[in-house]
Design a protein that fits this description.
The protein is an alpha/beta fold and 222 residues long. The protein has one domain: P-loop containing nucleotide triphosphate hydrolases (Rossmann fold, 3-Layer(aba) Sandwich). Helices cover 34% and strands 30% of the residues. The protein is built from 7 helices and 10 strands. A 6-stranded mixed sheet has the order 6-7-8-3-9-10, with helices on both faces. Strand 7, helix 6 and strand 8 form a beta-alpha-beta unit. The two termini are 28 Å apart. It binds adenosine-5'-triphosphate. The site of adenosine-5'-triphosphate (ATP) has 12 residues, from strand 1, strand 2 and helix 1.
């Protein structure tokens, strides 16, 4: 089953210097349980593609399916509902809620998605090495610990599709590798598809498949 299908996505931006063509008829399919690394030079459109897949940004043309659901046929409310229920987002900035404990941050998204399950969150926290940190607040955690909370918060809501934009970009290499391994392991176990934007060929090599954005189109990774 396809978790994400993009058909002929085209996107340009109006800027002070004129029109910037970013994506030119990009198509991509991601199976449930599969991980795909998206690489490309800075400015090649990786984040734009990920935002379009999440329904956070609208393409100029093309269609987006998350599972069987057509994002392009939905309004803002429908896209927000689908994102809450099916899509997990992880960014380079951890975006934790500073006033909530680790435990409350971990359960936050699942509650929004109507899938609160304390047992599952506790188990996930153990797997992520956060079991002893549940009562702490984000500012009392290291970068790697904060990113593990962000990953746990995303996975606790059991998304079918995880979209991650440079999730280990703020971490040192060893911590980054560790965090990515956990992400790959946990998403594969959950049967979730993972689209990982990364600059690192080394991290990309750990995914099931790779795609490279160049001049607005997808190519084989170099
Ligand atoms: N809201 C916007 N308005 C105008 N131009 C934009 C906007 N968002 C992105 N762009 C431009 O679109 C292009 C692609 O940006 P994007 O952030 O998708 O690239 P990226 O591959 O993710 O880059 P990086 O690896 O540096 O994060 C860039 O030229 C950027 O300047």
């Amino acid at each position: 089953m396809k978790a994400l299908t993009l058909y002929d996505i085209t996107k340009s931006f109006e800027t002070a210097e004129g029109r910037v063509e970013v994506l030119n008829a990009v198509s991509l399919g991601l199976e449930a349980g599969q991980s795909l690394a998206l690489t490309g030079e800075s400015g090649s459109g990786k984040s734009t593609l990920l935002h379009i897949a999440a329904g956070l940004e609208q393409p100029d043309a093309g269609r987006i399916f998350v599972g069987p659901e057509d994002l392009t046929a939905m309004g803002d409310a429908g896209r927000a509902r689908l994102r809450r229920g099916q899509v997990g987002l992880i960014f380079q900035q951890f975006n934790l809620i500073p006033s909530l404990s680790v435990a409350a941050n971990l359960g936050f998204q699942a509650r929004l998605a109507g899938k609160a399950d304390d047992g599952f969150v506790t188990d996930l926290a153990q797997r992520l090495g956060l079991g002893g940190l549940m009562q702490r607040y984000p500012e009392q955690l290291s970068g790697g610990q904060q990113q593990r909370v962000a990953i746990g918060r995303c996975l606790a809501a059991r998304p079918a599709l995880v979209l991650a934009d440079e999730p280990t970009g703020n971490l040192d290499e060893a911590t980054g590798d560790q965090v990515l391994d956990l992400m790959l392991q946990l998403t594969a176990e959950a049967g979730a598809a993972l689209l990982l934007v990364t600059h690192s060929p080394r991290l990309a090599a750990r995914c099931d498949a790779r795609a490279h954005l160049r001049a607005g189109q997808l190519a084989e990774a170099p």
